[in-house]
Amino acid sequence: MKLNTLFLGLCGASALAFAAHAETITIATVNNGDMVRMQKLTDDFTAKNPDIQLEWVTLEENVLRERVTTDIATKGGQYDVMTIGTYEVPIWAKQQWLLPLDGLGADYDTADIIPAIAGGLSVDGKLYAAPFYGESSFVMYRKDLMEKAGLTMPDAPTWDFIADAARKMTDRAADINGICLRGKAGWGENMAFLTAMSNSFGARWFDEKWQPQFDQPEWKKTLQFYVDLMKDAGPSGASSNGFNENLALFQQGKCGMWIDATVAASFVSNPKDSTVADKVGYALAPDTGLGKRGNWLWAWSLGIPAGTQKAEAAQKFVSWATSKAYLELVASKEGWANVPPGTRTSLYNNPEYQKAAPFAKMTLDSINSADPTKPTVKPVPYVGVQFVAIPEFQGLGTTVGQLFSAALAGQSSVDDALAGAQTAAVREMTRAGYIK
Questions:
Q1: Distance CA 320, CA 302 (A)
Q2: pLDDT tens across 312-364, in order?
Q3: Spatial CB neighbours of 403, under 8 Å, sequence gap ≥ 6
Q4: Which residue, 165, 154, 101, 94, is CA-closest to 129?
Q5: Distance CA 320, CA 81 (A)
Q6: Could you give the domains of the chain?
Q7: Residue 414: pLDDT above 60?
Q8: CA–CA separation, 86 and 129 (whole Å)
Q9: Cβ pair 110, 150 in contact under 8 A
Q10: CA distances from 86 to 52, 135, 345 (A)
Q11: Residue 316 phi, psi dihedral angles, 5° rounding
Q12: Which residues are CB-neighbours of 398 under 8 A, at least 6 positions away?
């Protein structure tokens, strides 16, 4: 009896000593569904890594950006793993604020990451954040309305086809708009769409010497085409509509077409939420024949700040959360349709995923057609497809977005909006020292 008591006492003391030596890493993340699910599944990680404990800081997207940006810029050291986007990674890596991910493990299979996604998270060939979830954008359309208009949607449509179809599908009496597109101002709202669209029209934000290009004919063609199309075939109040508003309109059967994030496919095809779930088709984002399509590229990813004192443990967690094994774990618990999309080639080769997600091939084709290192027809000094990866873009992108949203609302002309954008861009780029 005394020996048993002594043994149990020693075990308890060992457990306490072990707990005291366990390393705690703090993870800052966004409060979206995929990340919340990840937190629920982390027992799998701690079972495999009993010497690592996890502490979560879960925040709304705008608050997350503000907190992690402040922390990493000031070397605050609050977080060991940060959830960051494709916009931040190349900027922060060049500032040497992020550690290169060279310790993800022998079985991680970095080569399986979709090249376009990996390219947006790499600098000089080194991966600085591991993608948890990726997306591009494409055309979602009503097959019944397309047929009624006497048209057949090609897999790779042109903007002229989209515009013609949108006008023919519009039925104001039945409250059906031929097309729904983002109009709400913001660098990640209307300017994500319009920047990607402008790439396909041959436009660019800046030339090789960082001179703003809003006074060039390619931007005039882009914005005029967009404003005219939305006037003829878009919903009323479009200048207030972002992703969520257009999603609701499409699910209610009020849009013939919607060009937006590939992640929306699972929502518009879900019969629980969408009145048109069985009528949706998918196509690549449009082009004008210049070699670039109007689709973007984004990934929510996990990065490790250079100031962490727990880099080895942090890399173990990043490896677990973005691995092929994690996708299988989610599938076993939640079904293949709920696996985080857009990161690994092997997922799109998986017959079970293809069966669960009929939009899988078009999603992958859309991601693969976006190149953040060569986003435009003409050469540019920046990377990024629907954004310019410089710190000044957030503020400037939102300013330009407000000007373009006003043009869509009819509060200013296209020419005035472009002139205002050029003035704002020249002022900001001069102030920041890009141009003299």
A1: 11
A2: 999 999 999 999 999 999 999 988 988 999 999 999 999 999 999 989 999 99
A3: 412, 417, 420, 421, 424
A4: 101
A5: 13
A6: 2-135+298-356 (3.40.190.10), 137-296+391-431 (3.40.190.10)
A7: yes
A8: 9
A9: no
A10: 28, 11, 18
A11: -60, -40
A12: 185, 186, 187, 191
The helix/strand/coil state of 270 is coil
Q: Please, is 381 exposed, middle or buried when counting C-beta atoms within 10 Å of its C-beta (0-12, 13-18, 19+)? A: middle
Single-letter amino acid code for the residue at 304:
I
Which H, E and C letters describe 344-378, residue by residue? EHHHHCCHHHHHHCCCHHHHHHHHHCCCCCCCCCC
Nearest C-alpha neighbor of 196 from the set 281, 287, 134, 89:
287
Please give the backbone phi and psi of residue 432, each rounded to the nearest 5 degrees, phi first.
Answer: -80, -5
User: Length of the chain in residues, anyone?
Assistant: 436
DSSP 373: T
Give the DSSP H/E element, type plus range, for residue 57.
Answer: strand 52-59
DSSP string for residues in 103-145: -S-TTS-GGGB-HHHHHHTEETTEE-SEEEEEE-EEEEEEHHH
Answer for the pair 239, 409: CB distance below 8 angstroms, yes or no.
yes
What average pLDDT does range 268-272 have in this prediction?
A: 87
Residue with tokens 């993340």: 29
Tokens of 17: 């000593």
Which DSSP string do the residues of 157-218 spell out, in sequence order?
-BHHHHHHHHHHH-BGGGTBBS-B---S-STTTHHHHHHHHHHHTT--SB-TT--B-TTSHH
Which one-letter amino acid corresponds to residue 225? F
How far apart are the C-alpha atoms of 93 and 87, rounded to whole Å?
11
Tokens of 270: 């879900």
Kindly report the pTM of this predicted structure.
0.85
